[in-house]
Write a structure and sequence with these properties.
Layout lengths: L4 H28 L8 H32 L15 E5 L19 E5 L2 E3 L3 E5 L6 E6 L7 E11 L8 E7 L5 E4 L7 E8 L12 E8 L14 E6 L10 E8 L3 E7 L7 E7 L8 E7 L6 E15 L5 E2 L12 H42 L1
Antiparallel strand pairs: 1-16, 2-5, 3-4, 4-16, 5-15, 6-12, 6-16, 7-9, 7-15, 9-10, 10-11, 12-13, 13-14, 16-17
Helix pairs in contact: 1-2, 1-3, 2-3
């Protein structure tokens, strides 16, 4: 299995950069040394050049070590989750991702449809339902999500002015798409997965709201709206703090076919993820549309989607191949073997740099000894 070509390209660029900088320093030092007639001569000039180069080599070596350490520790600005797992290859799904400005130059979206009372502010958010009574809106992908294993990271914001508020929003992976209805703005009797971020408590004693739950719709069963989905719940958790948050609130939904469906939430602190649920052997329809919807009744709130980032996940199997959407083998840029090869290329660069430094140091020491002997002779 070969390493990702970018690893070798990046190390080569840095290598060329360091050596170019070093030799440029040599030339600069030579050109900057001036001496009066009879003051230093060739020997003095050579000594200054060698000393200057040794100093530059020391500084450059420290820079190389720092850069190498950063590369080997995997410094990155990604969002975490399985996309950071060294045994998982994550491929971004542009067709199921959405970020500002949301729309193209024609004020349309190539991969998403919008409807209802949805408001799009291209620099900030997609507001599914505003803080006004009797509002509902939705967004749905135009093409189905057919990946076998995937991860969807959603940044959202539920906020408003009043102390009484409702109703919440939903995340969908269903065979139906863009069908308005009375289940958080989407149609009832759906077939597939519904994840409900319910902020208003109708009739569910002993449960703290806001409450997040999953329902596996069979296309026939109605959502138990009067009891906040109690009869339909597959798994769920209380999430007090997702409304009017002090930080960016996020949900990370991860699915591995025939293994599990997991939901994690970030609402307490930055980069602090709380597992809401993990359902073993959960089955999402192999062809399902990704969507979001929200509704308000007599009570209201702003329900905003900030961004959606979806990834197709490939996991290394015991045989050493990767299993993904098509089941075919593919190089894994995040695999352990690739990371070793990337580290190997950096290590070889560092070894060459150190060897070069030792050679130059030996040259300097030898030259110093030679000058001392020459001085002693006379």
């Amino acid at each position: 299995m070969s390493a990702h070509p970018c690893a070798f390209v990046s190390s080569s660029i840095v290598e060329v950069g360091f050596f170019s900088f070093f030799f440029y320093s040599i030339l600069s030092s030579a050109s900057s040394i001036t001496c009066a007639p009879g003051s230093l001569g060739i020997a003095g000039i050579s000594e200054r050049i060698v000393r200057h180069c040794a100093t530059m080599l020391f500084a450059s070596s420290w820079a190389a070590v720092c850069l190498l350490a950063a590369s080997l520790t995997g410094v990155s600005a990604r969002s975490g989750g399985l996309t950071e797992d060294p045994d998982i290859k994550a491929i971004s799904l542009r067709t199921h991702s959405l970020e500002p400005p949301y729309l193209d130059s024609d004020m349309q979206s190539r991969w998403w449809d919008f409807g209802g009372d949805t408001i799009i502010r291209t620099d900030k958010y997609i507001r599914l339902a505003s803080d006004k009574p009797s509002r509902d809106g939705w967004i749905f992908s135009r093409v189905p999500l057919t990946a076998t294993n995937w991860e969807i990271l959603v940044e959202f914001k539920i906020h408003g002015q009043g102390n009484l508020f409702g109703d919440g929003f939903a995340m969908w992976l269903t065979k139906q798409r863009a069908q308005p209805g009375n289940v958080f703005g989407h149609t009832d009797h759906f077939e597939g997965l519904g994840v409900f971020f319910d902020t208003y408590k109708n009739n569910r004693p002993g449960t703290v709201f806001p409450y997040v739950m999953a329902m596996n719709g069979d296309g026939k069963t109605s959502y138990d709206k009067g009891n906040d989905g109690k009869a339909n719940e597959v798994a769920g958790c209380s999430a007090r703090g997702i409304r009017n948050p002090q930080i960016a609130t996020k949900a990370r939904l991860t699915y591995f076919q025939d293994k599990y469906l997991r939901l994690e939430l970030q609402y307490k602190a930055e980069d602090e993820w709380t597992q809401c649920f993990e359902i073993p052997k959960f089955k999402v329809p192999p062809v399902a549309y990704l969507g979001f919807s929200a509704e308000t009744g007599e009570l209201s709130d702003n329900h905003d989607i900030i961004s959606i980032k979806s990834h197709n996940l490939y996991q290394k199997n015991p045989g050493g191949n990767t299993a993904g959407t098509s089941g075919s083998s593919a190089p894994k840029s995040g695999s352990s073997m690739t990371r070793e090869k990337e580290g190997g290329s950096w290590t070889w660069f560092l070894v060459k740099f150190v060897m070069f430094g030792l050679a130059l140091t030996g040259l300097y020491v030898g030259y110093t000894v030679y000058r001392t002997r020459q001085r002693d002779r006379f």
